[in-house]
Design goal:
The complex is a heterodimer of chains A (652) and B (249). Chain A has 652 residues and is an alpha+beta fold. Helices cover 36% and strands 15% of the residues of chain A. Among the domains of chain A are: 136 residues, Flavocytochrome C3, Chain A, domain 1; 125 residues, Up-down Bundle (Methane Monooxygenase Hydroxylase, Chain G, domain 1), CATH 1.20.58. Chain A is built from 17 helices and 21 strands. In chain A, helix 14 runs antiparallel to helix 15. With 249 residues, chain B is an alpha+beta fold. Chain B has 2 domains: 108 residues, Roll (Ubiquitin-like (UB roll)); 133 residues, Alpha-helical ferredoxin (Fumarate Reductase Iron-sulfur Protein, Chain B, domain 2, Orthogonal Bundle). Chain B has a 5-stranded mixed β-sheet with strand order 2-1-5-3-4. A two-stranded antiparallel sheet of chain B has the order 6-7. In chain B, strand 3 and strand 4 form a beta hairpin. The longest helix of chain B is centred in the C-terminal third of the chain and has 19 residues. The radius of gyration of chain B is 20 Å and the shape is elongated. The mean pLDDT of chain B is 97. Classes of the chains: A alpha+beta (652), B alpha+beta (249).
């Protein structure tokens, strides 16, 4: 692999002009688009095959819905069952502008909150559509039997989340993601049993097949037999999730990975805003070097928990011995109107700041208290247990500390990635026929996602948006030539995949896949984590090609490619992380403003808040791949705000 | 802490397996059981041996991917998933046996990995409410009494890990199947398919080769989500009701 160009010497290419969003009032655009879209006659849908990669909220919902419409769906997941996709771990809830509380909520307010919460780096058209669809999602899920929390009158209960002042979050105790995912999985299972979805579990997509400029199939490996095979379709939908695991320690599932989207990027799909990564403020701190992942404690805890650190530096007394007037409830102090419910990026950075000042608690000073003593006094232990029992139990199981008696210790961790494959209003990437939905795309959350909005977006994309917009593509591209595994592009993609796997097995070096994954993760956390500087990012960008070089000389993968080989799976994902990490740092380097989850120390207000620079950076950065280690090309999509006027976010 | 591990190693479905002994030290009590296996695997790789294959993903106790039999107990000594079991529940010098789920309907794939796809087929037989996307009425059109919603939720918590089957002396999937039947059958939305659901799911379960239920109760003691034994009785009631109704037709 030649790496003879300076990766940071990127060029700026043609701007992205057409996002396919219709003109006209924002509230009418989705109707307009659906009306303008060409349809496929129901009788002809059987003749179209759609590949869906991933079975989380977005993929599961899309696969089930497309099959219900009559399309032939071929679906993939790396897990042993589609029911295990990581959407299942989402705890807190799902937003919807139902206004059941009569508290002033509306589609427009959800739209406004999401654009503002995203720090004015999302597209208005997309976000408005999301807010509109939110109400239909709740209807759909209730009809499927999702057991949302209810009140004694039999109606649905809601609660509040960060960054908003209404109560619009629907939930199923601390397991909302699980219940929504099982709803989608059950709908999908019905279609699998009916023969409308051909499901390939334990099968991982390793490349995209592009023929005559159109996505026509994928290369995938059967994880049990190791066999690398090709699958063809009229369109390919990636619902493979985000890339948070590039940081090694994150709240993602261990096997969540970026290979599907990165391979698509290498085949021509632009990758947008990779530096917009979300760091969740309330995770259980790491306990040692053996740590394999981090566990989130739901944001809903901030409804009743109070966050504090000692006022004095290096105060090592147990929390109960620190008197009230020697505690700093710093979020309530700095942000009196939102208090403990400020958005995630703000809460995370504030935690980092107090820890950097030397006021952090627990081992290594990397933690702050989340204290329920007041809530227990006010509401009683039983009421707190009813609301948060399962989360308290999980905390105690992991830390061996009882949060009813001792405050929880929490620290921020990588949780979600707002960036992803660039998509237009139809959720189509820059490769025609290739769509990206859910966390795999970049579109709706701007630079910071609000709590309980990921489930909303995944299901909106999967149940409602994609099944409408993909019709238009399929109707306009009706008769493709039949292609099969003998097509030169398929042969080439398979050969490249096999080469890569064989090389990984052949190196026989002296370092394990995990050791490289940890190394790249620690580098990113240090230089491209909660606070970023030009100096740090340049350091990381200097180091990544060295790690990549070392990887190909020292990686050790035992076993063969013709069997279940989990080391080979890991190593192959790391190959892609080692490239993605570089783009992530470059994007963070080029965006010299701070916004949302992207905090550049050089760009902050006097009070230490993120300072956006709209004149220069009011755009989505869509990067075009140019080769491993070669400077990518930047394409800018200018963002326009006609409805929500950009202001410096204030939660004080 | 130091441990002696005896781990089931099996190359693939067609090759006989055996217990293999590994001594391991430097285990911290804060590690999860899977992090302990990670530590073993890192050492095995560097020694040029094949690491132990095991299923795992979320490591938060919710995806249901992980699950091994530890000293004879599905998911080990605590009422939780294997990923949420921590090494503080073991003592220095312990010998720990680690085996895959043992059940006729869950063939071993490799080492500790088994094939649980039978569960997916049971769900496909009726573990859903037939409501195509877009066909749903307004969510508040049908209130659901809180007690019913809570009953549904408590059964819907099942993570499909298979511990109930592994713990059962008969390898029965009654607890798994009943959890889904009860979740959907108690809700007004699930009522139109109430009879076909229970009949179809139970016959799918039988076809997959799961054993019969003799109410040994081991399933409910192994379930990491605390789904209780009366769940099976409730499903039997549903099944009888549906069978009688069908015979009257």
């Amino acid at each position: 692999m030649s790496e003879n160009t300076d990766y940071t010497a990127y060029e700026t290419g043609a701007p992205v002009v057409d996002t396919k969003a219709p003109a006209g009032p924002v509230a009418e655009r989705w109707d307009t688009r659906r009306f303008e879209a060409k349809l496929v006659n129901p009788a002809n849908r059987r003749k179209h095959t759609v590949i869906v990669v991933g079975t989380g909220l977005a993929g599961g919902a899309a696969g089930a819905t497309l099959a219900e419409q009559g399309y032939h769906v071929v679906q993939f997941c790396y897990q042993d069952s589609p029911r295990r996709a990581h959407s299942i771990a989402a705890q807190g809830g799902i937003n919807a502008a139902k206004n059941y509380r009569n508290d002033g909520d509306s589609v427009h307010r959800l739209f406004y909150d999401t654009v503002k919460g995203g720090d004015f780096r999302a597209r208005e058209s997309n976000v408005h559509r999301l807010a509109q669809i939110s109400v239909e999602i709740i209807d759909q899920c209730v009809a499927q039997g999702v057991p949302f929390a209810r009140e004694y009158g039999g109606l649905l209960d809601t609660r509040s989340f960060g960054g908003v002042q209404v109560s619009r979050t629907f939930y199923a105790r601390g397991q909302t993601g699980q219940q929504l995912l099982l709803g989608a999985y059950q709908a999908l299972s019905r279609q699998i049993a009916a023969g409308n979805v051909e499901m390939h579990a334990r099968t991982e997509m390793l490349d995209l097949i592009v023929v005559d400029g159109r996505a026509r199939g994928i290369v995938a490996r059967d994880l049990i037999t190791g066999h690398v095979d090709t699958y063809f379709a009229d369109a390919v939908v990636l619902a493979s999730g985000g890339y948070g695991n590039v940081f090694y320690l994150s709240t993602n599932a261990k096997n969540s990975n970026a290979t599907a989207i990165w391979r698509a990027h290498r085949r021509g799909a632009y990758f947008a805003n990779p530096c917009f990564t979300q760091i969740h403020p309330t995770c259980i701190p790491r306990s040692g070097d053996h740590q394999s992942k981090l566990t989130l404690m739901s944001e809903s805890l901030r409804n009743d928990g109070r966050i504090w650190v000692p006022k004095a530096h290096g105060d090592t007394r147990p929390p109960a011995e620190i008197p009230e007037d020697e505690r700093d409830y710093y979020l309530e102090r700095i942000y009196p109107s939102f208090g403990n419910l400020v958005p995630r990026d703000i809460a995370s950075r504030a935690a980092k700041n107090v820890c950097d000042e030397g006021r952090g608690v627990g081992p290594g000073g990397q933690g702050v208290y989340l204290d329920f003593a007041d809530a227990i006094r006010r509401l009683g232990r039983d009421a707190v247990e009813e609301k948060y029992g399962n989360l308290f139990e999980m905390y105690e199981r992991i830390t061996a500390e009882n949060p009813y008696e001792v405050p929880m210790r929490i620290y921020p961790a990588i949780h979600y990635t707002m960036g992803g494959l660039w998509v237009d209003y139809d959720l189509q990437t820059t490769v025609p026929g290739l769509f990206a939905i859910g966390e795999a795309n970049f579109s709706d959350h701007g630079a910071n996602r609000l709590g309980a909005s990921a489930l909303m977006q995944g299901l909106a994309d999967g149940y409602f948006v994609l099944p409408s917009t993909i019709n238009d593509y399929l109707a306009r591209n009706p008769h493709h030539d039949d292609i099969d595994a003998s097509h030169p592009e398929a042969v080439r993609a398979v050969a490249e995949t096999n080469d890569r796997l064989e090389r990984l097995l052949a190196v026989d070096g002296d370092r394990t896949p995990d050791s490289f994954h940890r190394e790249i993760g620690e580098l990113l956390w240090e230089y491209c984590g909660m606070a970023r500087t030009e100096e740090g990012l340049r350091k990381a960008l200097g180091r990544i090609p060295e790690i990549r070089e070392e990887f190909w000389h020292r990686i050790k993968v035992p076993g063969t490619g013709q069997e279940l080989n989990q080391s080979l799976e890991k190593a192959n994902r790391i190959v892609d992380y080692l490239e993605l990490a570089e783009l992530l740092c470059l994007d963070a380097l080029h965006r010299t403003e701070s916004c949302g989850g992207h905090f550049r120390e050089e760009s902050q207000t006097e009070g230490g808040e993120a300072e956006r620079r709209d004149e220069e950076f009011s755009y989505a950065a869509a990067w075009e791949f140019a080769g491993t280690g070669r400077a990518p090309v930047l394409h800018k999509e200018a963002l326009e705000f006609a409805y929500v006027h950009p202001t410096q976010r204030s939660y004080a | 802490m130091r441990l002696t591990l005896r781990v089931w190693r099996q190359r693939d479905a067609d090759t006989p397996g055996a217990m293999v002994t590994y001594d391991i030290d430097d285990i911290s009590e804060d590690m999860s059981f899977l992090e302990m296996l990670d530590t073993l695997n890192e050492k095995l790789i560097l020694r040029g041996e094949e690491p132990v294959a095991f299923d795992h993903d979320c490591r938060e106790g919710i995806c249901g991917a992980c699950g091994v039999v530890i000293n004879g107990d599905a998911h080990g000594p605590e009422r939780t998933t294997t990923c949420q079991l921590h090494m503080r529940h073991f003592d220095d010098g312990d010998t720990v046996d680690v085996e895959p789920w043992r059940a006729g309907a869950f063939p071993v794939v490799k080492d500790l990995v088994v094939d649980r796809s039978a569960f997916d087929r049971i769900i496909g037989a009726g573990g859903y409410i037939s409501v195509p996307t877009g066909a749903a009425p307004e969510a508040h059109a049908t209130p659901v009494p809180k007690a019913d919603a809570d009953f549904a939720f408590e059964h819907a918590e099942c993570i499909g890990c298979g511990a109930c089957v592994a713990a059962c002396p008969n390898g029965s999937a009654m607890l798994f199947t009943s959890a889904k039947v009860n979740h959907l059958n108690v809700l007004p939305q699930g009522a139109p398919e109430r009879e076909t659901r229970v009949l179809d799911m139970v016959s799918a379960m039988d076809e997959e080769g799961f054993g019969g239920c003799t109410l040994a109760g081991e399933c409910a003691t192994a379930c990491p989500k605390g789904i209780a034994l009366p769940s099976i009785a409730a499903m039997n009631k549903e099944w009888l009701r549906a069978t009688r109704k069908a015979s009257r037709r």
